[in-house]
Amino acid sequence: MSQDGIVLIASVSIFDNDRVLMIKENKPTAVDKWNFPSGHVDFSEDILYSAQREVKEETGLDVKLIGTTGVYNFISNTNHQVILFHFIGEVTGGSINLEEEEITDSKWIKVNELLAFENEDLREPHVLKQIMDNLVEENVYSINIFNEQLFKSSH
Fold it and tell me: What integer is the mean pLDDT of 104-116?
């Protein structure tokens, strides 16, 4: 969703035991860049639903959101103000089935291996490095800080 140049993004670190899923994007603004599954929050869409929907669309996995590393506010490489809500999820079903045109690869890696990514290999590295540091240091907050939806999403 974008309003007055502000873009709302839901992003999810998907965990399977001690490993986290990274995806390689093939989008016009992010060719061959690693990222966590993420995407725009649609108008009138609940932020938690949006995070789960984006994961399903990009990876084929169903997730339960269990925590958050927080909210990140930054200017993107496309010169948009982005407010990114980053969640932590656990796999509850589905199987890896990448969105072929936009996602070219995925890999499960140990959390401490996140720090080995070079900036040039990451989408929005200044933000992803903050998220990765929070994951490695276990700076994680309860999902309960997000209130229940106040409106019904039109999905």
Answer: 95
- CATH architecture under which domain 2-142 falls: Alpha-Beta Complex (3.90)
Q: Give, rounded to a whole angstrom, the gap between the first and last alpha carbons of the chain.
A: 15
Q: What is the mean pLDDT of the chain?
A: 90
- Both tokens of 13, joined, read 């670190």
pLDDT band at 136 (very low <50, low <70, confident <90, very high): very high
Burial class (CB in 10 A: 0-12, 13-18, 19+), 41: buried
Q: What residue ranges do the domains of the chain occupy?
A: 2-142
Q: Rounded to whole angstroms, what are the CA distances from 38 to 47, 84, 128, 131, 150?
A: 12, 9, 12, 13, 23
**pTM for this entry:** 0.89
